[in-house]
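The protein record quoted in full:

***
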Amino acid sequence: MTYPRPVPVIGDATSAAERAGDPAAWALPEHAGGLYAVVAARRDVRRYRPDPVPDDVLRRVLAAGHAAPSVGHSQPWRFVVVRDPATRDRAAVLTDRERLRQAAQLEPDAARRLLDLQLEGVREAPLGIVVCCDRRTPAAGVLGRATFPDADLWSCAAAIQNLWLAARAEGLGMGWVTLFRPEELAGLVGLPDGVATLGWLCLGWPDERPPAPGLERAGWSRRLPLESVVVEDRWPADDGGPAAPPSHLRAPGREAVVGARDEADRLLTPPGSLGVLDRAVDRLVALGRGDVSAGTLVLAAADHPVAALGVSAYGGHVTRDVARAAVAGTSVGATAAAAAGLTTVVVDAGVDGGPLPGAVAARPAGPRGDLASAPALTPADVERLLAAGRDLGARDGLPAPEGLLALGEVGVANTTVAAALAAGLLGADPAEVTGLGAGADSAVLERKRAVVAGALRRAGSGLAPERALAELGGPELTVLAGVVLGAAAAGTPVVLDGFAVSVAALAAVLLEPAAQACLVAGQRSRERGHELVLQALGLEPLLDLRLRAGEGAGAALAAGLLLDGLRIRRATARVG
């Protein structure tokens, strides 16, 4: 049974079905021709009539500038409208002075051609508009400026373009004058510290009607053909750009991603009503796995030589004890998996004491180091363990032929390994990624930090993934990185556990970025550095329970929640 779609009385009243039925319905065909005509007819006007600009026309033009897009909706532009003749006189002196300064820097013929040009209409135009950017809000406090701090200036440039197009549509002329020292123009109109100027705009009725851009008509330059300024995908390697990195995986295509969102829009509930869970469910639906109802916990276990350096609160035998309990189905991770309807598969990636009965074997063959004085693995073992993990991710040897995969690990001292690997992959400070681990105290923490710092001094940071796994990783983390790659190739969703598993997934994503599309962060653990790794993965976790258990317990709990989310999605009423 379907129900009528609840139509919101505010905001966007359209449905995904409507938008899918006519993607171009938002077009304004009756205005498009006029817009393109205005864009093509925009000119940088230098000569003006003295007639005043009516206040209502000026307000419309300024309103168009104020309607420009701005990063984080920050609206950083300020428009100083200059009518005062004395201010214009001082501005004209500054432009004349700068015109001569610029000409002096050119070859004689070019200088003469420059001086022949009228480059501004500061004296003639009835209005001047000094466009300013109020940059006093810290970049980190504005959405979008933390990564591009100058995006506020770009927003103001977009406002200038709006002003220019509106002026042209009104029949006004506008010219953008940058023949100023920025500090002199700022002083002219009394700008405070933290407010920058983008130049002076002349505005008025034009005393010229140029059929083409003035500098182009004067032979100064020509407009480049469109083909010469459009680049497909990335900068050409034959023009100084680096070669594209190899990529063998592909994330779900845009049709699948949008299709998942379209399907969710048919539910009798507001879009995104389940928050982070809805986004995770959308990810599974985009992978074509919206019908899964079960899965497998892959629990990789290994011991580490670095444990001998006193970086753990527990003895090495604990790894084997927990791994044996997991094989028997009685470890905390295995019992959590059973409660969620998952089958547990234990991988012996190097547990001390010989092969682990009942586990899938994927053990390193070469020597293993303690990170601080020697590499963790040989390159050959990294290749071998990644391949074994890929096979498991493709379900070769797993009892369940379908469903999602949850990942966990067991290994005394592997938070030290994970911290070193995270620092090596991300170029992070060891103190940022090294935490207490399970049951440790401040003395253990100091030893861990010293070991991680020593490992980075030996191996370096900002390493390529495979080298980082060899220098700083562990066998169980390498296997899990391979599982992520194999699962991604098969389109299988993967639910991550805590810090160590997330670092393994990070190595996989750095090898194949498309693998990120199959990942769901199960939880945010208490381990220092986990948040940094989740940010690097671009993943928001489903759970935040301050877990320290490891063993895949958090991944199993999150997998159960994710499977419940899929059941909710399948059973919820649809709208017609």
